[in-house]
Amino acid sequence: MQQKFRIERMDREHLELALDWAAAEGWNPGLHDAACFFSTDAEGFFMGFLGDEPVGSISAVSYPDDFGFIGLYIVRPEHRGKGFGLKLWHTAVDHLGERTIGLDGVIERQSSYARSGFVTAHRNVRFEWTGPAVTETDPAVQRLDPADFGELLAYDAALFPGMRDDFLRVWMGQPSGVGLTYRSDDGGIAGYGLLRPCRVGYKLGPWFADTARIAEDLLKAFRHHAGAAPIFIDVPEPNTAALRLATVHGMRRVFETARMYTPRAPALPLERTFGITTYELG
């Protein structure tokens, strides 16, 4: 008897499984990504089953301000080419409805996403950085004070397509994460980022800054916290200052993705985005 394919919302256990699949694909998830993702929109994660066997996943996370993001789009290798991925895809797109939707797709799949109305905005480049430990950091770089969270949200709002208060509260406070801000001469936030532990080393994301100098000061401070462990950063290619920093600090290109949107790309100041937050949630 042929087994039936069905799609259900994930629970936390299945989200952990999907992140294991992502690790097997080389995406190197954070150690606490499941808790952060699930707390953002528990209704936005879907698992495909063949009988009782999980065979595919996709996330379709909703943010306020009519924005959503698709990620974790995986079909297990032995079950590809059977139409399961397309069914998962339609579930995610239908779930997000009329929102502006973003995704980070494999470069070779851009034409497939374009058939669903997605347009390429730019590429994101993953870099691996294994530079030496840093002993001195700029005093303007400080650990994030929870009392300053409202100010952080206001800063972030100009750099992301939707308000993400709930996500950032969990993201910036995750276990073993290091959240840093840069304070300008007038005392305001002029940059911030989060370093989080991953299956391999750390990831830095977001990495936002008003100038390249501020971005580099933050970068050095994050290297201080990571020691000699590798740091992975996903840099938007239009930010040429970020690419220069990657070159100056001897970072190695790992792979690239295509950042795509439908119906159109939001207007964002990418010159202040030195590293995106995550491929899964934008």
UniProtKB/TrEMBL annotation:
Domain of life: Bacteria
One Pfam family matching this protein: Acetyltransf_18
Residue runs in coiled coils: none
UniProt domain N-acetyltransferase: residue ranges: 5-141, 139-275
InterPro entries per record: Acyl/Acetyltrans_Enzymes, Acyl_CoA_acyltransferase, GNAT_dom, YitH/HolE_GNAT
PROSITE patterns assigned: GNAT
GO molecular function, a single term: acyltransferase activity, transferring groups other than amino-acyl groups
Keywords assigned: Transferase
Presence of the UniProt keyword Transferase in the record: yes
Protein name (Swiss-Prot/TrEMBL): GNAT family N-acetyltransferase
The organism of origin for this protein: Methylococcus geothermalis
Origin organism lineage: Bacteria, Pseudomonadati, Pseudomonadota, Gammaproteobacteria, Methylococcales
